[in-house]
Every structure is written in C-alpha cells, then in structure tokens.
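Human:
Take a look at this sequence-structure pair and walk me through the tokens.
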Amino acid sequence: MRFIDPKTDFAFKKIFGSDRSHAILISFLNNLVYNGDAIVAELEILNPYQPPPIAGIKATYLDVRAKLNSGEIVIIEMQVLNVAGFEKRVLYNAAKAYSVQLDSGAPYTTLYPVIALTITDFNMFPDSPSVMSRFVLKERTRLTDYPSCDIELIFAELPKFTLSLEQLASVSDQWLYFIKNAPSLELIPTSMETVPELQQAFQIAKESNLNRAELEEMESQQRYIQDQRGSITKALETGIEQGLQQGLQQGRQDEKITIAQRLLPMMDNATIAATTGLSIDEIQCLRLLII
C-alpha cells in the first residue's frame, strides 16, 4: 500500500479541502489550533480562491479556506519551498481574508477573526526550537494584546518535528506525523487506527484511489518540487564555492601585505613589489599608512 505525499498542493487539498474532508478538517483544526479541545463542531469548506475586492489588486489562491461554526475564517497553506517573500505572503493572505469579508457599507463590527495556519517543510524560524509558533497583535513594550486580536498567524515547521511513531503523545502529534511521513508508510499505524478522522485521511491518501489524471498531476507537482530544490541546492553550492575562492584569494592578498610590511624598512618599493607580487602603488600606500 502506498500513500500520496500530503505536502504536495494536490494531495493536501484532496485530503483536507475536498467535499469528503469536513470531519478530517475539524479534527485537524481542533488539535493543531485548539490544542485538542473540541472547539470546532461544524465548518464550511470555502472556495480557496480569494478574488480582489477591486480591479487591479492581486488575486490569491489558498490550499484550504473554511468558515467555522463560530464565524471565524481559517486559511491553511502547505508550503514546501522557502521562496523569497513567503513571510509577507502569509501576512498578505491573512489580511486579505480579513478585509474581503466586508461588503460596501457594511459595519466593521461584522468582521470575524481570521486564523492563518501555515505548515512549512523548512525552518521558518531557525532561532526557535518549537514546532508550533503563534503570532498575534501585541503592544511592543508591554506585550499587551491589541483590543481586537482578530488576526492570528500559526506555523507548524515539519523539520523540527522529530518524534518517532512510538513517541507520539497526542492527536496533534499524529496529524503532524501523518503529513510528514505518510509517503514512507506501507500500512496505517496501529496507534492511529483509534482516530477515525486519521483513518479517513489515510484512505483518501491511498495512491490506488487516484485516477490517471490525478496521478499525473501529483507526479508533475513532485517533479517541480524536486527541480526547484535542485536549483536551490546548485545555487547554494555555487555561492559557497565562489565564497571559498574569494576567501582564498583574500587570504593570499593578506599574506602578501604582511610580507611587504615586514620588508618596508629594508627594501625599496620595486624590490618589494618583485618579491611579493604587489604593485608599486600598493607598496607606496603601505608606506603612507605607517608614516
């Protein structure tokens, strides 16, 4: 038995954002957003497309968008590649989901809070060891909450989630383990069979349940991710190599200068230049520096 990779856009939307996903998404949100409390009883899965309120403003597409029974809007994004400006994109999508609720003339009191849940396959906050991070509006010095904390940004960083199957202590752990490790599993783990919503997610994620068009779309996305990761790796390797070459060149230059400084009291400029490989102008500059 093989499972599709929930980290691809195609698989994530199919598992968490389809017509069959209501119970799955409720369990997922109750555990990752509300720490296991049954806060979400019902929800409506919305079109993930966020059209601009006026012409000329950027349209956006989300992986999953839902309205909870409390009225809150939840937007979810699974991000595999650490692209430039991603942190701004998260904030933009959250602000847009908040602002597009109002029709012309509607009072601001009708705005519902927005929760933006982002799962990343890279370290978003390298200085923090926590898998989960939560951001809300606070006063900078006193850290008091803004009177209306209507936008919350929640992040789950998969590389920091290192628990083994035997170490999973909560349903939240099991959901993160599912997203990170499903492609490497051959069977549904026995410990996850007690959570019906996780079983449903595994059933949807069975590769054998996909038709030819779905398989081709998933494989296309996987190839794109691999190609992009290869490009990023190559760029990093090229940058490191160039940095090493520059470092070596700078080291040689520093060594020449050190030798020249020692020879200044004993030799003329032409002789020092011939000995070190520095130019006569560079030797003259060294002499001026010690005057």
Summary: The chain has a mean pLDDT of 84. The longest helix spans residues 212-263. Helices lie at 9-16, 22-32, 86-99, 171-181, 196-204, 212-263, 269-276, 280-289.
